[in-house]
Write a structure and sequence with these properties.
Blueprint lengths: L1 H26 L3 E2 L11 E2 L2 H16 L6 H21 L3 H17 L6 E3 L5 E2 L4 H19 L5 H20 L2 H21 L8 H19 L3 E2 L5 H5 L1 H16 L12 H7 L4 H24 L2 H22 L8 H12 L2
Parallel strand pairs: 3-5
Antiparallel strand pairs: 1-2, 3-4
Helix pairs in contact: 1-2, 1-7, 2-3, 2-7, 2-8, 3-4, 3-8, 4-5, 5-8, 5-10, 6-7, 6-8, 6-12, 12-13
Length: about 350
């Protein structure tokens, strides 16, 4: 009942304050103007992340968690949200924005929240002095994966909601009440924001919201899977399969084309799905289902034995390959598996 209570409070606060931040954004010029890379046609306020963060902070402080890890989560979230607001307003260069991300990432690291060991097949590996580097790479990857998928109304928010629900389920099995509680609070804040963000959107997350959500999920995943085994190392990656798939193949595509991996384009997963003829809403809902499939796979992997987890992992890899081929996400126009299935079905009388 307490979990349901904090979920409802977080949802209600977010639902009530988002219109206020829509007004503030319009009043002070924090709006996203249309250009050739963007889907929307009219200027759109983008302080959604600030509203979510305030709701998350209020309810977290109200819940009064015993664990002190909530402090670096909130402090770092405000830092990266501020960097995002500045970037949304003044369009920072990628390198400058990345430096800002590093400042935020330094906050949990300074509190000792790092990936220090993994245990592949019962053998403990201690990263030692490299634990900080591993943590930086991990958090930066999640932050930018969520940020890059924020390209359609409600897309990033919905994918984050699915991820948070999945992590919360796993932490229930782990009896990690602290991480579960923070996941539920952030989940409620995102649910309160989604009605204003779903197509046709009244407001956007902005980089401030997308990076902030990626940051909190990244830190929660480290706390929730601290001293993780080799298999459980992949749980957050699987749960966030859609944004990780998008950022991974975007990097490959840009490398093949000989352009900077930091260069923005209109060839992300949501763009590719729309190019197949799906409408804005249909594209978002379809990607929700893909994200849900990966999230359920991650939960099942946690409950399965090692052989079962390997089988689930292979099935998810197969699914990912089908998505990549169907959408031409890698930009090669190669469809070996789909062509094989087509030949097989053509031979069936």
């Amino acid at each position: 009942m307490y979990t349901l209570l904090i979920l409802c409070i977080s949802f209600a606060i977010s639902l009530l304050i988002v219109p206020l931040f829509i007004y503030i954004a319009k009043r002070f010029g924090f709006v996203d103007y249309p250009n050739y890379r963007k889907v929307h046609k009219v200027p759109m306020p983008y302080l959604g992340g600030v509203a979510i963060l305030i709701s998350f902070t209020i309810v977290t402080l109200f819940a009064q968690p015993v664990e002190t890890e909530y402090k670096p989560i909130i402090i770092g979230a405000f830092v990266i949200c501020l960097i995002g607001v500045i970037d949304d307003k003044y369009d920072l260069k990628p390198f400058i924005k990345f430096l800002g991300q590093l400042v935020a990432i330094a906050v949990p690291i300074s509190y000792g929240i790092v990936i220090d060991t993994i245990t592949p097949f019962g053998v403990e590996i201690n990263f030692g002095v490299f634990s900080i580097l591993v943590t930086v790479i991990w958090l930066a990857a999640i932050i930018n994966a969520i940020n890059l998928i924020d390209g359609l109304d409600g897309l990033a928010t919905g994918v984050v909601i699915i991820a948070l629900a999945s992590i919360a389920v796993i932490t229930i099995f782990q009896q990690n009440i602290f991480v579960m509680m923070l996941c539920v609070i952030l989940l409620g804040a995102c649910l309160g924001f989604l009605p204003y963000n779903f197509h046709p959107a009244k407001t956007f997350l902005g980089d401030n919201g997308a990076m902030m959500l990626g940051y909190i999920i990244g830190v929660l995943s480290i706390i929730g899977f601290k001293n993780i085994t080799f298999i459980s190392l992949f749980f957050p990656i699987i749960i966030l399969g859609v944004p990780f798939m998008d950022i991974f193949f975007a990097a490959i595509r840009r490398y093949r084309e000989g352009v900077s991996v930091m260069r923005a384009d209109k060839n992300h997963l949501h763009h590719r799905v729309q190019q197949l003829g799906f409408s804005h809403r249909e594209t978002v809902v379809l990607i929700y289902f893909i994200a849900l499939l990966f999230a359920i796979g991650g939960v099942i992997m946690y409950l399965a034995t090692v052989p079962g987890a390997v089988i689930i992992g292979l099935l998810l890899l197969f699914t990912m390959n089908m998505v990549v081929e169907a959408t031409n996400l890698i930009g090669s126009n190669r469809r070996p598996v789909l062509n094989l299935f087509q030949k097989i079905f053509n031979k069936i009388p």
